[in-house]
Amino acid sequence: MPDRSTADTVGTAETAGTAAASDITRQVDALLDRSTDGIVMDSRDRRAVVLSRQTVYQGAVFDVEDMRIALPAGGGDCVTVRRQVCRHAPCVVMLVHDEARDLYLLEREYRVGSDLFAYGLPAGLMDDGEDVEQAALRELAEETGVVPVGEDGVIFDHVGAFYSSEGMSDELANIMVMHLRRWESRPRRFDPDEHVESAWVTWRQLAGVPVTASNSVIAIQHETIQRIMKKTTSIHGKTNIVC
């Protein structure tokens, strides 16, 4: 448990970091404003307003809405634009690491968007009522049969939540690295039209295959940085890394 002075120092540093980020945002907004074509994009008081929306497609995984949206313009005016958006449930994407063997879970399955039998990471949609970690554990068990054992059988390293393609979809991908300390194997459970292969591979093998899904690449790049930092620390001892 940190003492009060340590906690105060950490709190002060976090506050300073937040203030610095706000200052940077204001500076960047001012630079972008120089190229405006009349749309007001940095106002806290005026936001885009949905004028109409119509569901034009309903599918098993996603729906598509056709929308008319009023964007705020100078002088209190608005500019109406039309957009189509894919309405999609949030998902989880997991880079799974077996700490004892230093191996990672890699998958391969047919992906219609790329028309490839693509390499990738375990992933899946979140069910109603699930939090991110519950969804990750369920999807991991269903797709690979890997189930952590005990409360400390897995450590979650949450990379972040990112829109898969914010220009056309509201799918929010919750990306993480799962470090397994203890786990057991159980039978996999697939939907009738799911066909997924999985294998434990070395870090060199994982880095050497062409993973094309952006969310998977984010997780792998994050782990790349973490491995470099750990290697640097082990060679040189305690190292201060400034971003």
Explain this structure to me?
The model has no long low-confidence stretch (mean pLDDT 90). Strands 4, 5, 6, 7, 9, 10 and 12 form a seven-stranded mixed β-sheet that branches. This protein has a three-stranded antiparallel β-sheet with strand order 1-2-3, with no helix packed on it. Strands 8-11 form a two-stranded antiparallel ribbon. The longest helix is centred in the first third of the chain and has 30 residues, at 4-33. The protein has 243 residues and is α+β, with helices and mostly antiparallel strands. The chain is globular. 30% of the residues lie in helices and 36% in strands.
Write the layout of secondary structure elements.
Elements: H1 4-33, E1 49-58, E2 62-72, E3 78-88, E4 91-98, E5 103-111, E6 116-120, E7 123-125, H2 132-144, E8 146-148, E9 154-163, E10 172-180, E11 183-185, E12 197-201, H3 203-208, H4 214-236
Instruction: Supply the helix-strand structural class.
Output: alpha+beta
Low-confidence stretches: none
Rg estimate, integer Å: 22 Å
List the secondary-structure elements in sequence, H or E: HEEEEEEEHEEEEEHH
Count of individual beta strands: 12
Shape: globular
Quote the average pLDDT.
90
Strand proportion, as a percent range, falls in 35-45%
| Quaternary structure state of the chains depicted | single chain
Q: Helix count?
A: 4
Cα end-to-end separation: 27 Å
Helix content: 25-40%
Largest pleated sheet: 7 strands, mixed
